[in-house]
Write a structure and sequence with these properties.
Helices cover 15% and strands 40% of the residues. The protein is mainly beta. Strands 10, 11, 12, 33, 34, 35, 56 and 57 form an 8-stranded antiparallel beta sheet that branches. Strands 2, 3, 5, 6, 7 and 9 form a 6-stranded antiparallel beta sheet that branches. Helix 1 crosses helix 2 and helix 2 packs across helix 3. It is globular.
Length: 871
């Protein structure tokens, strides 16, 4: 019960108020099928509506209306579990006028549909549930406490026979579904870290054991304790949140209806057809008609259907243009955006029948495998635990998913059964493995094993066993899939610093080279074996390519979907020939400046210009930035004093990543010349750029640049091999190049030290796929770790003139970035948070920090093939 001590009421007055609230609750409980306004309830309490609303909230902990909602769902749950009434009759009896609204509300709070919980009560033995929980109690380990963890102790009265549970809610517990829950270990608990901002409620309950499952699910006499709401930033405090559980009082709201079901699902995997555990992140309505050749145009429409007139025009154009096609046919796809997820691991796989896709996602704080039902537009969590689950692949019959996971220690292949979540470990070798793919009959899985540049293609029975080596020797290998006939493999390799699509026999003999000379990866073959789809990296951007399986004639598929395009990856076919891929989109939302003196953040360039990287001049009076204009990338300059903006004239060329020289008279930029990004220097007022890298064989140059303090050299990164890059120094006078880093790692975002004698950079130098920060002294090439990879993402290091080292670091709690500042004595402090902060630029005095807020999203696209006869 919420305390009234902050109000100067006499004890007798409080008792009167409690009796009034109790009377209203009894009235509501007896008349749930009727409408109840606040005025009606106040009349029962014999108080004014305003006074009643305040008193009710203080005594019951929630508003009268929310209490009524909770009563209705609790009664509906009781009727579903204890009677054979039809759901529609229960819906009307508890006060809902729409079955659709009732079902939606019920699922959002309980977690399961009314039909599912009714069957659950007869299919789960409470004694078995208790046995599983008791057996696990001895082996349970607390979650690791992080800076943003919510932790504490639960205190339970003597004689209690049941199980305690602590849950976190995004609002009032009685009217929300929990975003996290945990069973305390010997009274202590640590909830998973929270990645969302806002107010949260923490609640502890004691669920009593019962002989009948219905009684366990209803929990008429459970223990409870609720804390006042906390803000996300408060959850990292050093003091714990402790609970003293007590019996529920008559005025307390019903316990959250989801907790008992959530507990059952944690220990006894329920059948499939489970609804969402989290709100949907979805974007719909974008449709694109794409094909081979020049007729690849973008069209946004609210419907997936293709109008007959448009289809006729498209087919007529295909026949007139004579585009490359299979004999007698023109292949064209109509794509629609089916979903998006900003927390996806970008490794999606479509089900054989095309009704669902699977992807790894951080939607539940840990990277697990999630399913998305395309027709129902619903997410469903498939795997549990704090392991790193990724790279899902559907079995041909759609009943299982193979994926890679660290749940057994090293990265191994596991399978999970869709119907009940049963897990099977397939590989047991010591080496890490990647990219599982099923054989057409479901009996085998092909995968990649071993460290980078020493990998082997292998196959293994889908139930486990001794693997078979496909490749003759370890090499720079990518991934494989089976051809539709199951007698050969289509794979990609990274030999000779390129990505090549090849066809292999099951004993490793090369049968065919399908592509050569580009960076191609993740191929898939159409069900009839006539077509190959794959990803190709073109000047730093990944696009989908199509090619006849019998010849090397790849044609770009998805170039027209967006301007600029996203990263289009991992195409694959359904059994009916539909084409699926996912797209990683990074969009600039604003250029902002953080003022160190005041601690305030100011927006300089808004989302209407779609800005990306930006940089100060030496006095921080001007900002040069990259923006999108008429679908093209341009460089613009903002005068902060006059707020005027102008577009830099570069002869009509696309440009980006501007950086002022120390003299402020020149800009270093990347410019696109003949479809390839180059590095150039241009006058700050505009004019013909002087291209410095035109003769160099460098790729992936469209990235941050940095001037040396003397204004004579530029520092940048370039791609040197698939998934590798190096740092280079470019002399702007002679256009000579010097490579300064070597190895098979990523090296990114370099910056000069103030004296020009060293460079700072971010790299995967530690061997993991997370960034660490390093310093390289140019005189002796000695590398020192500034902030090595410790599981927390760190980016964009820079050494300031006063000796401070600053960088951006990811917040584990809410996935935003914040600035870390380390002084010359090694003391660190965290500064402002930045939503998706990228590419920092500092004023000369270090007081102002310029950055671009970026939004990352993963989109999932599905295409329907249009076949037309061509005469």
């Amino acid at each position: 019960m919420a305390a009234l001590s902050k109000y100067p009421h006499r004890e007798t007055t409080i008792a009167v108020y409690r009796r009034a609230v109790t009377r209203v609750i009894a009235h509501l409980t007896a008349n749930l099928g009727e409408d109840h306004t606040l005025e009606d309830m106040a009349d029962v309490a014999t108080l004014s509506p305003f006074h009643f609303n305040r008193i009710f909230r203080e005594i019951a902990g929630v508003s009268p209306v929310r209490y009524l909602y909770a009563l209705r769902i609790a009664e509906a749950k009781r009727l579903i579990l204890t009677t054979r009434l039809k759901v529609i009759d229960i819906c009307y009896s508890v006060g809902y006028n729409s079955l659709g609204s009732f079902n939606k509300r019920f699922v959002s709070l309980v977690g399961y549909s009314p039909r599912r919980i009714r069957s659950l009560a007869t299919r789960v033995d409470p004694a078995e549930l208790r046995r599983l929980i008791d057996a696990r109690a001895d082996s349970m380990a607390l979650n690791r406490r992080e800076a943003c963890s919510i932790w504490g102790t639960t205190h339970i009265p003597l004689g209690f026979s049941g199980v305690a549970m602590v849950a976190l809610f995004p609002g009032s517990p009685s009217n929300n579904y929990p975003v996290a829950s945990v069973l305390p270990e010997h009274g202590a608990y640590v909830l998973p870290p929270v990645r969302q901002a806002g107010n949260f409620f923490v609640m502890a309950v004691g669920l009593n054991w019962h002989e009948q499952m219905v009684d366990f699910l209803l929990q008429p006499n459970c223990l409870r304790a609720v804390m006042p709401p906390i803000h996300l930033s408060d959850s990292g405090r050093s003091s714990p949140i402790d609970f003293h559980l007590v019996p529920r009082e008559p005025v307390d709201p019903p316990i959250p209806p989801s907790l008992a079901f959530r507990l059952v699902d944690q220990f006894i995997r329920l059948p499939a057809e489970l609804p969402d555990e989290l709100p949907e992140v979805n974007s719909r309505g974008a449709t694109a008609v794409l094909g081979r050749g020049r007729l690849s145009k973008m069209s946004f429409a609210p419907s997936r259907a293709i109008k007959p007139a448009r289809l006729l025009a498209a087919l007529l154009a295909l026949s007139i243009l004579g585009l490359p096609s299979r004999p007698g046919h023109a292949a064209e796809f109509t794509f629609h955006l089916v979903a998006s997820d900003p927390t996806s691991g970008a490794d999606a796989s479509i089900s054989p029948d095309g009704t669902m896709f699977a992807t790894s996602s951080l939607r539940g704080w840990h990277q697990n495998i999630w399913l998305y039902d395309i027709a129902a537009t619903r997410w469903r969590k498939l795997t549990e635990g704090d392991a790193y689950d990724s790279e899902p692949s559907w079995s041909p019959d759609g009943s299982r998913i193979a994926f890679t996971s660290t749940r057994g220690g090293n990265k191994a292949i596991w399978t999970v059964r869709i119907s009940d979540g049963a897990l099977t470990r397939v590989t047991t070798e010591r080496a890490d493995v990647d990219y599982p793919a099923w054989s057409p009959d479901g009996s085998s899985i092909v995968y990649t094993s071993g460290p980078w540049k020493a990998r082997t293609f292998k196959t293994i029975a889908s139930t486990g066993g001794i693997p078979h080596n496909v490749s003759k020797k370890p090499g720079h290998l990518g991934a494989c899939k089976y051809y539709p006939d199951g007698r050969s493999l289509i794979c990609h390799t990274y030999e000779n610093n390129r990505g090549n699509v090849i066809r292999l026999s099951l004993d490793g003999a090369v049968l065919d080279h399908l592509t050569n000379g580009a960076l191609d990866y993740k191929p898939a073959v159409s069900p009839d074996g006539s077509e190959v789809a794959f990803s190709r990296i073109e000047d730093g951007t990944s696009v989908i390519q199509l090619s006849p399986a019998s010849s090397i004639r790849p044609t770009r598929l998805s170039a027209a979907l967006t301007q600029p395009p996203g990263e289009d990856r991992w195409p694959m076919y359904t059994q009916s020939g539909r084409l699926f891929f996912h797209r990683v989109v990074n969009r600039g939302t604003a250029v902002m400046v953080y003022h160190g003196g005041s601690g305030e953040t100011e927006t300089l360039i808004g989302s209407d210009e779609k800005p990306s990287q930006a940089a100060f001049d030496s006095a921080a009076r001007r900002v040069a930035y990259c923006a999108e204009l008429d679908g093209r990338s341009v460089v613009r300059i903002l005068d902060r004093a006059t707020t005027t903006r102008r577009t830099l004239d570069l002869g009509g060329r696309e440009a980006c990543f501007p950086r002022f020289a120390p003299d402020d008279r020149r800009l270093a930029v990347t410019v696109k010349i003949d479809g390839v990004w180059q590095i150039a220097v241009v006058d700050a007022e505009g004019g013909e750029p002087r291209v410095l890298t035109g003769r160099a064989d460098l790729r992936g140059l469209n990235g941050p640049l940095d001037w040396s303090p003397d204004g004579e050299r530029l520092l940048f990164k370039a791609d040197t091999a698939p998934f590798e890059s190096a740092l280079f120094i470019l002399d702007t006078r002679s256009a000579t190049l010097e490579r300064v880093t070597h190895g098979h790692d990523f090296f990114e975002a370099p910056s000069w030290s103030p004296d020009g004698g060293a460079i700072l950079f971010m790299s995967t130098h530690s061997g993991e796929w997370l960034w660490g920060l390093y310093r390289l002294t140019l005189s002796d090439r000695r590398v020192v770790a500034l902030a090595p990879n410790d599981g927390t993402e760190k980016k964009y290091p820079r050494l300031l003139a006063d000796g401070r080292t600053v960088w951006m670091q990811a917040d584990r709690c809410d996935a935003t970035e914040f600035v870390v500042e380390r002084d010359a004595a090694g003391r660190e402090q965290s500064l402002t948070k930045m939503p998706g902060g990228h590419w920092p630029s500092y004023s000369r005095d270090g007081d102002q920090l310029l950055f671009t807020a970026m939004l990352r999203n993963v989109e999932f696209w599905l295409g329907d093939r249009i076949e037309a006869s061509v005469r």
